[in-house]
């Protein structure tokens, strides 16, 4: 037997076997598990990734600490519980922003929209958009603030001055955060209000949410308008009457303007 076969060849085989060992599943799988476990540990428990601060902006009426309290409930999570022993984490990676948004909106109907940003590695930024007052909605003896999407968001004890009052009939219970006036009607009210204010310096005091819509002006006469027909055409007819037939002095004595009929408009 040659020296090469006796001494060198076995050493080469042993080297090959060592290289093959590191490629075996019996080695790679445990190694992979260890690497994943280490990554998860640092992602969940490292101080670098624990949420330290919640910043709230955009709020005017609602206090920031009230919003932060709800947010913290869904940022700190229990990872493992056994009896009285609990392991929890405030890792930014598992912060439940969807539930934060859902529960803040449920708690505060005054808020129209929320955006949440994760500021890596340990800050949460909550941007709040509060609802803006559009009108007062009254049904029977109850009154609420209404925004320009037709959503009621605050119950009122006293009706604010210089705000349109929308009177709604019915017995359906009104819940905060719900849409009670459709956006099409809101758009019609805005269009009539802006037209009268800009062209004739006339305000709107009340709107009866009926069909037709009945507007009570600041001069105490009424406008009857069909919300299901051509709004632009009805407003054009009203403008023609107010410009050409109904003078400023005459307006003091009229009772109403009917616009809902397709081919004509008249007043009394």
From TrEMBL:
GO terms for cellular component: plasma membrane. GO terms for biological process: cell division. InterPro entries: FtsQ_DivIB, POTRA, POTRA_FtsQ_type. PROSITE patterns: POTRA. Keywords: Cell cycle, Cell division, Cell membrane, Membrane, Transmembrane, Transmembrane helix. Coiled coil: none annotated. The keyword Cell division applies. This is POTRA domain-containing protein. It comes from Candidatus Staskawiczbacteria bacterium RIFCSPHIGHO2_02_FULL_33_16. The lineage of its organism: Bacteria, Candidatus Staskawicziibacteriota.
């Amino acid at each position: 037997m040659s020296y090469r076969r006796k001494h060198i060849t076995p050493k080469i085989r042993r080297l090959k076997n060592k290289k093959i060992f590191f490629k075996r599943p019996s080695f790679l799988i445990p190694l992979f598990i260890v690497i994943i476990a280490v990554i998860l540990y640092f992602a969940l428990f490292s101080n670098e990734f624990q949420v330290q601060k919640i910043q709230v902006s955009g709020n005017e009426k609602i206090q920031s600490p009230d919003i932060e309290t709800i947010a913290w409930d869904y940022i700190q999570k229990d990872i493992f519980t056994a009896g009285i022993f609990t392991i929890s984490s405030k890792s930014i990676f598992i912060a439940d922003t969807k539930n934060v948004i859902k529960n803040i909106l449920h708690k505060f109907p005054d808020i129209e929209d929320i955006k949440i940003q994760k500021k890596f590695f340990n800050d949460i930024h909550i941007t709040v958009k509060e609802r803006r007052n559009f009108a007062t909605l009254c049904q029977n003896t109850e009154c609420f603030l209404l925004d320009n999407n037709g959503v009621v968001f605050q119950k009122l004890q006293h009706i604010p001055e210089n705000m349109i009052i929308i009177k709604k009939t019915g017995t359906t219970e009104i819940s905060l955060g719900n849409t009670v006036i459709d956006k099409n009607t809101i758009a019609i009210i805005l269009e009539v209000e802006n037209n009268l204010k800009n062209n004739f310096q006339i305000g709107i005091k009340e709107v009866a949410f009926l069909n037709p819509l009945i507007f009570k002006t600041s001069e105490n006469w009424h406008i009857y308008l069909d919300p299901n027909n051509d709004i632009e055409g009805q407003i054009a007819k009203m403008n023609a009457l107010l410009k050409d037939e109904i003078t400023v002095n005459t307006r003091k004595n009229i009772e109403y303007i009917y616009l809902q009929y397709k081919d004509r408009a008249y007043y009394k």
